[in-house]
Amino acid sequence: xxxxxxxxxxxxxxxxxxxxxxxxxxxxxxxxxxxxxxxxxxxxxxxxxxxxxxxxxxxxxxxxxxxxxxxxxxxxxxxxxxxxxxxxxxxxxxxxxxxxxxxxxxxxxxxxxxxxxxxxxxxxxxxxxxxxxxxxxxxxxxxxxxxxxxxxxxxxxxxxxxxxxxxxxxxxxxxxxxxxxxxxxxxxxxxxxxxxxxxxxxxxxxxxxxxxxxxxxxxxxxxxxxxxxxxxxxxxxxxxxxxxxxxxxxxxxxxxxxxxxxxxxxxxxxxxxxxxxxxxxxxxxxxxxxxxxxxxxxxxxxxxxxxxxxxxxxxxxxxxxxxxxxxxxxxxxxxxxxxxxxxxxxxxxxxxxxxxxxxxxxxxxxxxxxxxxxxxxxxxxxxxxxxxxxxxxxxxxxxxxxxxxxxxxxxxxxxxxxxxxxxxxxxxxxxxxxxxxxxxxxxxxxxxxxxxxxxxxxxxxxxxxxxxxxxxxxxxxxxxxxxxxxxxxxxxxxxxxxxxxxxxxxxxxxxxxxxxxxxxxxxxxxxxxxxxxxxxxxxxxxxxxxxxxxxxxxxxxxxxxxxxxxxxxxxxxxxxxxxxxxxxxxxxxxxxxxxxxxxxxxxxxxxxxxxxxxxxxxxxxxxxxxxxxxxxxxxxxxxxxxxxxxxxxxxxxxxxxxxxxxxxxxxxx
Amino acid sequence: xxxxxxxxxxxxxxxxxxxxxxxxxxxxxxxxxxxxxxxxxxxxxxxxxxxxxxxxxxxxxxxxxxxxxxxxxxxxxxxxxxxxxxxxxxxxxxxxxxxxxxxxxxxxxxxxxxxxxxxxxxxxxxxxxxxxxxxxxxxxxxxxxxxxxxxxxxxxxxxxxxxxxxxxxxxxxxxxxxxxxxxxxxxxxxxxxxxxxxxxxxxxxxxxxxxxxxxxxxxxxxxxxxxxxxxxxxxxxxxxxxxxxxxxxxxxxxxxxxxxxxxxxxxxxxxxxxxxxxxxxxxxxxxxxxxxxxxxxxxxxxxxxxxxxxxxxx
Lengths: 669, 314
Prior knowledge:
The structure holds 2 protein chains of 2 kinds.
Chain A: H1 2-22, H2 27-55, E1 59-67, E2 70-76, H3 78-101, H4 103-108, H5 113-132, H6 136-154, H7 161-191, H8 197-201, H9 207-225, H10 234-240, H11 243-269, H12 274-296, H13 301-328, H14 332-367, H15 378-381, H16 383-396, H17 403-415, H18 424-455, H19 463-466, H20 473-491, H21 493-500, H22 502-508, H23 535-559, E3 563-565, H24 583-586, H25 588-593, E4 599-605, E5 614-620, H26 622-643, H27 650-668
Antiparallel strand pairs in A: 1-2, 4-5
Helix pairs in contact in A: 1-2, 1-5, 2-3, 2-5, 3-5, 3-11, 3-14, 3-20, 5-6, 5-11, 6-7, 7-9, 7-10, 9-11, 10-11, 10-13, 11-13, 11-14, 12-13, 12-18, 13-14, 13-17, 13-18, 14-16, 14-17, 14-20, 14-22, 16-18, 16-20, 17-20
Chain B: H1 2-32, H2 42-52, E1 56-58, H3 63-82, H4 98-118, H5 122-152, H6 158-167, H7 174-190, H8 209-212, H9 218-243, H10 254-281, H11 290-312
């Protein structure tokens, strides 16, 4: 039943693409209809996903499509159900947000809207199909559909050279990643009996081949998930796509990669080795830290958010790595806590990152600029967006009682069980990564104080910002809904963790030990004695103390009216927006402390008679400069050298053919 | 039900005691520096005075600026309620473990730093920027200390930790020694005391916390000042109850709890004395020396964790 509904969801997305083609001449109607279908598909996906997760049953269907001996197999179990629900949820939110957001494109007609909606439909259907497919062939087709459709979405505003190059890098990385995944499935299919997931799961691999398959999958899915050092496409591609697409790419497409990784490693490969876990854990910790450090240096709002996706995917990988280590060393109950933490963080990141991208989109739509240093004081112009963005910031900073905190807390709890490993290198690596996670969390707070303080607080720094107004209703609704969900999933931690617990039960054979003793008020993942966190009680406590403080001070407020006055300017004349701290100055102390992490070029030109002093700061990614650019240069140079053989002279070409023939004859003889 | 009421009483006790601790530290410092200082209860008078003062708001201030004092105060009071100050049997301690406690402080700091950015003056931004820099270095060291502790007592619940430590025989575990040294260094940084920040100065080159709250007045300032006093008290209680858990009641018996309240008072005042001495004998650091100081704290926390894993886990 739930699988049928999920298929309907796929059908609705394909229909929404079709609508875009058929009604391309009437953009208004087309946009409305197409996003309506997209929203309907989201509802269907959420319904079927939640049903599959809660009922914990496996649905399977063989569709008579494809080669005669190779039909398309679709399935829906708890794991795909969970991710399907996440994708569906963000699709619903985007379908509220999208029509209003792209209205500008509809009106100015510079970029054909039909392209956008057509590929949006394909992109979402690709994601659904990746989650539903139960054989390697349909998985790869869906995966490539998702990649290619999102390439066109990134390249949508292709009149800017920067967007074209971002899209090209993205496509390149997606193709390479796809090849790695294909090879990974190839190893499994070689040992198993066929391409269906059921056959692959039965494959008996020796440990060398299992490690090779694992590494292929790790690189392949890691390229899409954007873990350091495979992240370079992410901060380029996400800022240039339209904001609702950035939200979906960052919020859910990266999660689809995580799904693929979990499916490959836990379900198909099995027999997890602890060395794999260490690799995943270290890469995760490194991604988390580097992601947030790079984010701190950004002044383009969407690029900053994109780097935070690297950070959050790192946190998810830390959870996965912990769970793999504990599972491999025979502690399934602790592994379950870590896996639930990773899955919970997938949901949370999808919610707050989409919320933040929606907020960023609203700001960009009003201000028409990406640079945060031109913004300021938007909380007064856009109160709803500002309030929702604040919720997103608090959630992503993992502050109680919002959702981000729960998953990070669970990750910490799993990491603190490292003593179960009885010392050794492993026992030392895990707490150090936990410390790196702690540093990441603290730096994330610094980063979002910067973002919120510079964008929404203070005085407006440019003229466009002064003219900004609140965005239309449709864009507000999706932000408010996501903000409420951020709080909701922070409070319903026990419920969510219990629902997610069936996934480790299936793959690891055991769930979280403490979940039975938890009530709606307390979440205790390991045991009640060890650790507990009561989000609803925390909220009640907070409200209680606020109320008491307010009531105690209220009588004073009556008798003593607040006076509004101009702020003290040290006697030098009125405040100017240029006196405020900017993103660069705010992050300067941190830049100085962690100066090894970036390639910083800072230049000060002294004042000339005709102009004032000039300061320029450029912060670059070491990995891009040291790992990718050299490779790109080598490829470019080799290509240039080989291009010489293509001189355009017919006689030379005939000569090539002649010598090739001679060579082949020699080989044959 | 009794438990909840006692938890409320404990919270009130800590909240009301907090200004006295600050006054006490100031008084001792004055005596050590041969000055005629104000009485230890002067902070109560200051708070009362602030409550009567009119609030002057900048016309550029947003609702965040008005809400932040309430958020900061409320969160800090909640933190006071989950700490095992007097008894380890209070039901509030299972609401939040030590990681949540760090989260509470982070939440308060987040809003305070936002409020600093709100009015649009240079000082606020400067204070916020410095505060988040210092705390982003201090927080990992603090969490690492707590990680070592919670691995030692196999629980992140503070009540369990205090109960475990007071029931155990007194042992000088190397991990705990390193961790407590780190915790003290971090606590000094987080509560904005010398050598990281000087609560008594308004010199623009050096101030951190005071720069952030420069625009506040009246009851808003009262809430923020009280919250920062409370923060100092909470860190002090945390330190004394973890290092010297002796005296903390393991039951809900009223006699035990009254005795526990008195011992905690005594312990915290001794710690306040030590703080005053430490603040008298050393000078404030330059801002960019602070990372080195916190680096030492981080290394100590790391040493504590390593020595626990290498030496103490069988």
